[in-house]
Protein backbone atom coordinates (compact mmCIF):
# COMPACT_ATOMS: atom_id res chain seq x y z
CA UNK A 1 0.00 0.00 0.00
CA UNK A 2 1.34 3.41 -0.97
CA UNK A 3 1.65 6.17 1.63
CA UNK A 4 -0.97 8.28 -0.20
CA UNK A 5 -3.52 5.45 -0.02
CA UNK A 6 -2.82 4.99 3.67
CA UNK A 7 -3.33 8.71 4.42
CA UNK A 8 -6.52 8.70 2.31
CA UNK A 9 -7.95 5.71 4.23
CA UNK A 10 -7.04 7.26 7.60
CA UNK A 11 -8.77 10.52 6.64
CA UNK A 12 -11.90 8.71 5.48
CA UNK A 13 -11.96 6.65 8.69
CA UNK A 14 -11.64 9.84 10.75
CA UNK A 15 -14.52 11.46 8.83
CA UNK A 16 -16.64 8.33 9.40
CA UNK A 17 -15.92 8.38 13.15
CA UNK A 18 -16.74 12.09 13.40
CA UNK A 19 -20.04 11.54 11.55
CA UNK A 20 -20.91 8.65 13.91
CA UNK A 21 -20.20 10.83 16.96
CA UNK A 22 -22.37 13.64 15.58
CA UNK A 23 -25.10 11.05 14.93
CA UNK A 24 -24.74 9.86 18.54
CA UNK A 25 -25.21 13.45 19.77
CA UNK A 26 -28.45 13.90 17.85
CA UNK A 27 -29.67 10.39 18.78
CA UNK A 28 -29.54 11.46 22.44
CA UNK A 29 -31.58 14.55 21.54
CA UNK A 30 -34.12 12.41 19.65
CA UNK A 31 -34.37 10.07 22.63
CA UNK A 32 -34.99 12.88 25.12
CA UNK A 33 -37.60 14.46 22.83
CA UNK A 34 -39.44 11.17 22.18
CA UNK A 35 -39.39 10.14 25.86
CA UNK A 36 -40.68 13.62 26.72
CA UNK A 37 -43.68 13.31 24.42
CA UNK A 38 -44.33 9.71 25.57
CA UNK A 39 -44.51 11.03 29.14
CA UNK A 40 -46.67 14.02 28.04
CA UNK A 41 -44.05 16.70 28.63
CA UNK A 42 -41.60 18.64 26.50
CA UNK A 43 -38.05 17.46 26.10
CA UNK A 44 -35.06 19.81 25.68
CA UNK A 45 -36.36 22.99 24.03
CA UNK A 46 -34.39 25.94 25.47
CA UNK A 47 -30.83 25.66 24.11
CA UNK A 48 -30.91 26.73 20.46
CA UNK A 49 -33.87 26.29 18.14
CA UNK A 50 -36.12 23.57 19.67
CA UNK A 51 -33.18 22.33 21.73
CA UNK A 52 -30.98 21.44 18.73
CA UNK A 53 -27.77 22.58 20.47
CA UNK A 54 -28.60 20.71 23.70
CA UNK A 55 -26.37 17.64 22.99
CA UNK A 56 -23.29 19.85 22.53
CA UNK A 57 -24.16 21.74 25.71
CA UNK A 58 -24.38 18.42 27.58
CA UNK A 59 -21.04 17.26 26.12
CA UNK A 60 -19.26 20.46 27.21
CA UNK A 61 -20.82 20.18 30.69
CA UNK A 62 -19.79 16.51 31.09
CA UNK A 63 -16.21 16.89 29.92
CA UNK A 64 -15.67 20.09 31.95
CA UNK A 65 -16.76 18.52 35.23
CA UNK A 66 -14.13 17.43 37.73
CA UNK A 67 -12.67 14.00 36.96
CA UNK A 68 -12.71 11.89 40.11
CA UNK A 69 -11.44 8.36 40.66
CA UNK A 70 -11.47 6.06 43.72
CA UNK A 71 -8.18 5.96 45.65
CA UNK A 72 -8.31 2.14 45.86
CA UNK A 73 -9.06 1.60 42.16
CA UNK A 74 -6.65 -0.07 39.74
CA UNK A 75 -6.00 3.21 38.03
CA UNK A 76 -4.78 2.24 34.54
CA UNK A 77 -7.50 -0.33 33.65
CA UNK A 78 -10.11 1.88 35.36
CA UNK A 79 -9.04 4.86 33.25
CA UNK A 80 -8.61 2.98 29.96
CA UNK A 81 -11.83 0.90 29.97
CA UNK A 82 -14.19 3.71 28.78
CA UNK A 83 -11.67 4.74 26.11
CA UNK A 84 -11.42 1.18 24.73
CA UNK A 85 -15.19 0.80 24.96
CA UNK A 86 -15.72 3.83 22.69
CA UNK A 87 -12.84 2.75 20.43
CA UNK A 88 -14.41 -0.70 19.84
CA UNK A 89 -17.86 0.86 19.23
CA UNK A 90 -16.35 3.13 16.55
CA UNK A 91 -14.01 0.50 15.07
CA UNK A 92 -16.88 -1.87 14.21
CA UNK A 93 -18.33 0.82 11.89
CA UNK A 94 -15.54 0.06 9.41
CA UNK A 95 -17.47 -2.98 8.13
CA UNK A 96 -20.10 -0.76 6.50
CA UNK A 97 -20.38 -1.89 2.87
CA UNK A 98 -18.87 1.10 1.09
CA UNK A 99 -18.29 0.52 -2.61
CA UNK A 100 -15.22 2.75 -2.82
CA UNK A 101 -12.63 4.45 -0.64
CA UNK A 102 -12.63 2.61 2.68
CA UNK A 103 -11.68 -0.97 3.53
CA UNK A 104 -13.42 -3.80 1.69
CA UNK A 105 -14.30 -6.34 4.38
CA UNK A 106 -14.90 -9.76 2.85
CA UNK A 107 -15.12 -11.15 6.41
CA UNK A 108 -17.03 -8.20 7.86
CA UNK A 109 -19.44 -10.23 9.98
CA UNK A 110 -16.57 -12.14 11.63
CA UNK A 111 -14.99 -8.78 12.47
CA UNK A 112 -18.33 -7.66 13.93
CA UNK A 113 -18.51 -10.75 16.18
CA UNK A 114 -14.93 -10.19 17.34
CA UNK A 115 -15.62 -6.55 18.24
CA UNK A 116 -18.86 -7.31 20.10
CA UNK A 117 -17.06 -10.05 22.04
CA UNK A 118 -14.31 -7.62 23.02
CA UNK A 119 -16.94 -5.21 24.31
CA UNK A 120 -17.60 -7.69 27.14
CA UNK A 121 -14.05 -7.23 28.43
CA UNK A 122 -14.35 -3.45 28.70
CA UNK A 123 -17.50 -3.78 30.85
CA UNK A 124 -15.90 -6.50 32.98
CA UNK A 125 -12.67 -4.56 33.55
CA UNK A 126 -14.59 -1.32 34.24
CA UNK A 127 -16.61 -3.06 36.96
CA UNK A 128 -13.65 -4.91 38.46
CA UNK A 129 -11.03 -2.14 38.40
CA UNK A 130 -13.24 0.29 40.36
CA UNK A 131 -12.78 -1.92 43.47
CA UNK A 132 -16.38 -1.27 44.42
CA UNK A 133 -18.82 -4.04 45.28
CA UNK A 134 -21.70 -2.30 43.45
CA UNK A 135 -19.61 -1.87 40.31
CA UNK A 136 -18.39 -5.48 40.47
CA UNK A 137 -21.93 -6.84 40.79
CA UNK A 138 -23.09 -4.63 37.92
CA UNK A 139 -20.16 -5.79 35.78
CA UNK A 140 -20.84 -9.47 36.49
CA UNK A 141 -24.52 -9.13 35.62
CA UNK A 142 -23.70 -7.19 32.45
CA UNK A 143 -21.16 -9.81 31.32
CA UNK A 144 -23.57 -12.70 32.03
CA UNK A 145 -26.32 -10.95 30.07
CA UNK A 146 -24.12 -10.01 27.11
CA UNK A 147 -22.59 -13.48 26.74
CA UNK A 148 -26.03 -15.15 27.00
CA UNK A 149 -27.53 -13.08 24.19
CA UNK A 150 -24.41 -13.17 22.02
CA UNK A 151 -24.99 -16.91 21.51
CA UNK A 152 -28.40 -16.43 19.85
CA UNK A 153 -27.03 -13.37 17.99
CA UNK A 154 -24.21 -15.45 16.48
CA UNK A 155 -26.55 -18.34 15.56
CA UNK A 156 -28.96 -15.98 13.76
CA UNK A 157 -26.00 -14.44 11.95
CA UNK A 158 -24.82 -17.91 10.88
CA UNK A 159 -28.28 -18.68 9.46
CA UNK A 160 -28.03 -15.70 7.13
CA UNK A 161 -24.40 -16.44 6.33
CA UNK A 162 -25.60 -19.84 5.05
CA UNK A 163 -28.26 -18.09 2.96
CA UNK A 164 -25.99 -15.38 1.53
CA UNK A 165 -22.97 -17.65 1.12
CA UNK A 166 -20.41 -15.25 2.57
CA UNK A 167 -19.44 -12.91 5.39
CA UNK A 168 -19.60 -9.62 3.52
CA UNK A 169 -22.46 -7.16 4.11
CA UNK A 170 -22.44 -6.35 0.39
CA UNK A 171 -23.89 -9.83 -0.24
CA UNK A 172 -26.85 -8.99 2.03
CA UNK A 173 -27.58 -5.87 -0.01
CA UNK A 174 -27.35 -7.79 -3.30
CA UNK A 175 -29.47 -10.80 -2.21
CA UNK A 176 -32.34 -8.61 -0.98
CA UNK A 177 -32.80 -6.73 -4.24
CA UNK A 178 -36.16 -8.45 -4.93
CA UNK A 179 -37.22 -9.77 -1.50
CA UNK A 180 -36.21 -8.64 1.99
CA UNK A 181 -35.02 -11.26 4.47
CA UNK A 182 -37.65 -9.88 6.85
CA UNK A 183 -40.37 -11.74 4.92
CA UNK A 184 -38.65 -15.14 4.97
CA UNK A 185 -37.53 -15.00 8.62
CA UNK A 186 -39.88 -12.78 10.60
CA UNK A 187 -39.40 -14.62 13.98
CA UNK A 188 -35.62 -14.34 13.57
CA UNK A 189 -35.97 -10.61 12.99
CA UNK A 190 -37.82 -10.19 16.30
CA UNK A 191 -35.26 -12.32 18.16
CA UNK A 192 -32.42 -10.34 16.58
CA UNK A 193 -34.00 -7.05 17.66
CA UNK A 194 -34.51 -8.31 21.23
CA UNK A 195 -30.92 -9.59 21.33
CA UNK A 196 -29.68 -6.22 20.09
CA UNK A 197 -31.55 -4.56 22.97
CA UNK A 198 -29.79 -6.93 25.39
CA UNK A 199 -26.39 -6.43 23.76
CA UNK A 200 -26.61 -2.64 24.00
CA UNK A 201 -27.95 -2.72 27.61
CA UNK A 202 -31.22 -1.08 26.68
CA UNK A 203 -34.63 -1.34 28.33
CA UNK A 204 -36.02 -3.90 29.18
CA UNK A 205 -32.54 -5.47 29.53
CA UNK A 206 -30.75 -2.56 31.22
CA UNK A 207 -29.56 -4.53 34.26
CA UNK A 208 -26.03 -3.29 33.66
CA UNK A 209 -27.21 0.22 34.54
CA UNK A 210 -30.15 -0.52 36.85
CA UNK A 211 -30.55 2.51 39.10
CA UNK A 212 -33.00 0.96 41.57
CA UNK A 213 -31.28 -2.32 42.41
CA UNK A 214 -27.59 -1.57 41.67
CA UNK A 215 -27.39 2.21 42.19
CA UNK A 216 -25.89 2.57 38.70
CA UNK A 217 -24.34 -0.73 37.73
CA UNK A 218 -20.76 -1.18 36.52
CA UNK A 219 -20.26 2.56 35.86
CA UNK A 220 -21.14 3.80 39.35
CA UNK A 221 -17.59 5.05 40.07
CA UNK A 222 -17.27 6.92 36.77
CA UNK A 223 -17.90 10.64 36.53
CA UNK A 224 -17.26 13.41 34.03
CA UNK A 225 -15.40 12.22 30.91
CA UNK A 226 -15.35 8.51 31.85
CA UNK A 227 -19.13 8.39 32.17
CA UNK A 228 -19.51 10.40 28.94
CA UNK A 229 -17.31 7.93 27.02
CA UNK A 230 -19.31 4.90 28.27
CA UNK A 231 -22.51 6.77 27.35
CA UNK A 232 -21.21 7.57 23.83
CA UNK A 233 -20.05 3.97 23.31
CA UNK A 234 -23.54 2.68 24.15
CA UNK A 235 -25.27 5.04 21.73
CA UNK A 236 -22.70 4.36 18.96
CA UNK A 237 -23.53 0.65 19.42
CA UNK A 238 -27.26 1.42 19.15
CA UNK A 239 -26.71 3.26 15.87
CA UNK A 240 -24.53 0.44 14.53
CA UNK A 241 -27.03 -2.27 15.50
CA UNK A 242 -29.75 -0.23 13.77
CA UNK A 243 -27.60 -0.03 10.64
CA UNK A 244 -26.91 -3.78 10.74
CA UNK A 245 -30.61 -4.51 11.27
CA UNK A 246 -31.51 -2.46 8.17
CA UNK A 247 -28.89 -4.17 5.99
CA UNK A 248 -29.74 -7.69 7.22
CA UNK A 249 -33.55 -7.57 7.21
CA UNK A 250 -34.71 -4.49 5.30
CA UNK A 251 -32.16 -4.80 2.48
CA UNK A 252 -31.22 -1.34 1.38
CA UNK A 253 -28.29 0.23 -0.42
CA UNK A 254 -26.46 2.53 2.01
CA UNK A 255 -26.32 5.30 -0.61
CA UNK A 256 -30.11 5.61 -0.85
CA UNK A 257 -32.28 8.05 1.10
CA UNK A 258 -34.55 5.11 2.02
CA UNK A 259 -31.64 3.62 3.99
CA UNK A 260 -31.47 6.76 6.16
CA UNK A 261 -35.23 6.61 6.81
CA UNK A 262 -35.05 2.93 7.79
CA UNK A 263 -32.06 3.61 10.05
CA UNK A 264 -33.87 6.44 11.84
CA UNK A 265 -36.99 4.27 12.23
CA UNK A 266 -35.06 1.35 13.79
CA UNK A 267 -33.22 3.77 16.13
CA UNK A 268 -36.62 5.21 17.03
CA UNK A 269 -37.80 1.67 17.90
CA UNK A 270 -34.97 1.39 20.47
CA UNK A 271 -36.29 4.58 22.10
CA UNK A 272 -39.92 3.51 21.75
CA UNK A 273 -39.21 0.26 23.62
CA UNK A 274 -37.52 2.24 26.40
CA UNK A 275 -40.58 4.45 26.81
CA UNK A 276 -43.00 1.50 26.77
CA UNK A 277 -41.66 -1.60 28.56
CA UNK A 278 -40.70 -2.06 32.22
CA UNK A 279 -37.47 -3.78 33.24
CA UNK A 280 -37.37 -7.60 33.23
CA UNK A 281 -36.83 -9.74 36.29
CA UNK A 282 -33.34 -11.23 36.12
CA UNK A 283 -34.47 -14.89 36.16
CA UNK A 284 -36.89 -14.16 33.30
CA UNK A 285 -34.01 -12.59 31.39
CA UNK A 286 -31.93 -15.78 31.43
CA UNK A 287 -35.01 -17.93 30.75
CA UNK A 288 -35.62 -15.87 27.59
CA UNK A 289 -32.01 -16.23 26.43
CA UNK A 290 -31.45 -19.97 27.01
CA UNK A 291 -34.92 -21.56 26.84
CA UNK A 292 -36.62 -19.42 24.23
CA UNK A 293 -34.20 -17.65 21.86
CA UNK A 294 -31.53 -20.38 21.72
CA UNK A 295 -33.79 -23.29 20.58
CA UNK A 296 -35.56 -21.14 17.96
CA UNK A 297 -32.31 -19.77 16.51
CA UNK A 298 -30.77 -23.29 16.50
CA UNK A 299 -33.78 -24.72 14.67
CA UNK A 300 -33.64 -21.94 12.07
CA UNK A 301 -29.90 -22.51 11.64
CA UNK A 302 -30.44 -26.22 10.89
CA UNK A 303 -33.36 -25.35 8.59
CA UNK A 304 -31.39 -22.77 6.58
CA UNK A 305 -28.35 -25.06 6.37
CA UNK A 306 -30.55 -27.87 5.06
CA UNK A 307 -32.29 -25.53 2.63
CA UNK A 308 -28.95 -24.34 1.25
CA UNK A 309 -27.70 -27.91 0.79
CA UNK A 310 -31.00 -28.84 -0.94
CA UNK A 311 -30.78 -25.91 -3.35
CA UNK A 312 -27.12 -26.65 -4.13
CA UNK A 313 -27.99 -30.31 -4.83
CA UNK A 314 -30.55 -29.16 -7.43
CA UNK A 315 -27.91 -27.00 -9.12
CA UNK A 316 -25.37 -29.84 -9.19
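Sequence proposed for the structure above (316 residues):
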Amino acid sequence: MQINDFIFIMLESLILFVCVLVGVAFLTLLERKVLGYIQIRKGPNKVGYCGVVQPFSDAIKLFNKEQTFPMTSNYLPYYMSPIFSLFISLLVWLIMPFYFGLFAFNLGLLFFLCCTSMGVYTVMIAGWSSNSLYALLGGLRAVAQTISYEVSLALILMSFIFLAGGYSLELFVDYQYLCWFMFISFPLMLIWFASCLAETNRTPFDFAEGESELVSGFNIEYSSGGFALIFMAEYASILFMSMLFVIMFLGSDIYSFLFILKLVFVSFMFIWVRGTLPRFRYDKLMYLAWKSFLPISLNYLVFFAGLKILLLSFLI
